Amino acid sequence: MRRQPMLRAAAVAALTLLLAACAGPELALQEAPPAPTTSPEQAEQRLATVASERAAIEARFAEREVVCYEKFFVNRCLDEAREVRRAALATQRAIEIEASHYLRRLKVEERDRAIAEADAAYAQEEARLAAEPPPVKKPAAAAPPAKKPAAAAPPRARSGDSRVVRGQQRAQESTANAEQEAAERAANVAAYEERRRKSQERQKEVARRVAEREAKAAERAADEARRANGNQPAPTN
């Protein structure tokens, strides 16, 4: 009868030793928020490091599984190994999210800066055209008519007829000047509209490129999230 308490004590001691051997120092791993990223180079380096760390975490988990199957309390050891892997993957995921968010913020700021610069250039050009209209070119003087062979002198024009001729000439010159000014104004308006169209196209192109980069980054983050969730074990009762 005295052997039973001794056997129970020995069993409890053995169980304690097994649990201590199975629960390594990795269980003390705590999930802490990553330090903020300060440069694009650091963000890219962190993303590359996350990929290599995930592979290392999976390799350590595979080694731990082999060790656990050699122990008496296999399920408990496996659960603890899975928890260590989950915490390590969560830490790497937090680093990845922070670095990706930093890069996306830089891209958005770059897009906004490009759009603001295009808008400022457009407004400056518009103000310049409004403040400094191009000078109107005067029509070239008409060439004097070719001299005709001497002929009988025409009858002398009366003074009233000369005034009528000069009035007609001034009217023709005024009409020609007005037509030329209208043509130049139309050309200026067309050039202005063309510059505005090109500016809008540049803004759309910048926005399209930024949207494509953000979509690719989001897709990559979603793939990484799905891959990380797929690596987590099913909950155990």
General description of the model:
- This protein has 237 residues and is mainly α.
- The protein has one domain.
- It has four helices and no strands.
- The longest helix is centred in the C-terminal third of the chain and has 73 residues.
Distinctive features:
disordered C terminus, 237 residues, 76% helix, mainly alpha, 0% strand
The N- to C-terminal Cα distance equals 37 Å
How would a textbook summarize the main sheet?
none
Mean pLDDT: 76
Q: How many DSSP-defined strands?
A: 0
- In helices, the fraction of residues equals over 70%
* Percent of residues in beta strands: under 5%
Number of domains: 1
Question: Unreliable runs, pLDDT <50, ≥5 residues?
Answer: 1-30, 232-237
Q: What string gives the helices and strands in order?
A: HHHH
Total DSSP helices: 4
SSE class: mainly alpha
Radius of gyration over all CA atoms, rounded: 43 Å
* C-alpha geometry: rod-shaped
Outline the fold blueprint:
Blueprint: H1 3-22, H2 40-68, H3 74-131, H4 159-231
Helix pairs in contact: 2-3, 3-4
